[in-house]
């Protein structure tokens, strides 16, 4: 078959973007006054924080405390909204954003590979078999969450980040060595290797900002999660131009891997790891079985069975329905662009109106919007769908971990709760895309069956979220009434 030659715009555009990015990073380093000894331990870092705040008269008394004195520092040394300082907080957001952009951004751009493998590189395999690659990648990203969460609770945030970034980058380069029609090579490199790398860094990179913010946690997390959308835009456009252009699959993948390596290095340098307090010894039963938490996790499992169907198949759907290739190739990028606003704006509103209060309608609209994929047979219909679905899909993904954070009791093992919350989501992401692909078919695509399956599984479980919101509100009302009744 004749390959679609993509317009050769990538070279000048990418070089220009690289120069601008380098300039912005240089300004960021200068503005943030990034120290050269950012690898120092928590005690030394805390001493510098105190000095920066101007409490020079207290340095001597703090210096004489024992090594565990970090846990007992008075709150007067820290800003109410930024416990470690404003510069370190936003520097960490930028660093985590870069890591998320190039790691989870790759899963957001998998639709490019799904289309390329189906029509060219692995055209001897069914769409269901190919979707296992993306499904396993997301599965490992999430199923390894308890390991990342445990490392998070133990304070090994940087170790987990570096290990995950290293494994992801090596696997990305190995993907470029995969031969045509050799399914197992692509599966091992992209599905297993890259997925395991994301799994190690996902919880530490996404939630390290929790320790830098108090009143703006959901907004900061939304900004970090927006990196998945920006990365999906950049990587989908880059890979489409490279793979379908004169560069080809091998060097197109390697160029993307080199860019990823660069962003990982800068991102890890920008992240400031705070001194982590030991979590209280809550039993697993108490930590993982409260009703709002269980209902939210149940939503995550069922909804994830079909949530990623449009992201995986929209480009293939558009091309199969006669949409011009240039627009079809940008469908994944447009969806990720809309997802940026979906990850940031609802997260900002969640800090003001309540996380569950914003999450419930966004998740419901995400499921209902899935049905509209059947109308993407015209250019206008395609663009409208990817914009609206991308927005609400982004909100559903970005608010999930902040919801778990808000439902976590004070002193509980936050990393453990988050880790176990994403395991069911990982299982659903493993089996969901192949089930959708099997329903869709491999020769004569029956699109309405795949769309209905994905949309129903994404919409129905929203009743779990409504129940979680009701129970959570009732428990908060009881807690607020207890002091007054006691006083009476």
UniProtKB/TrEMBL annotation:
Matches recorded under InterPro entries: MFS, MFS_dom, MFS_trans_sf, Proton-linked_MCT
Transmembrane segments: 93-113, 125-144, 156-175, 187-210, 222-243, 255-273, 293-314, 326-344, 356-374, 380-401, 421-440, 446-471
Predominant location category: membrane
Keywords associated with the record: Membrane, Transmembrane, Transmembrane helix
Membrane topology according to the record: Multi-pass membrane protein
Pfam families membership: MFS_1
GO MF entry, a single one: transmembrane transporter activity
Localization of this protein: Membrane
Protein name: Major facilitator superfamily (MFS) profile domain-containing protein
Natural source organism: Bondarzewia mesenterica
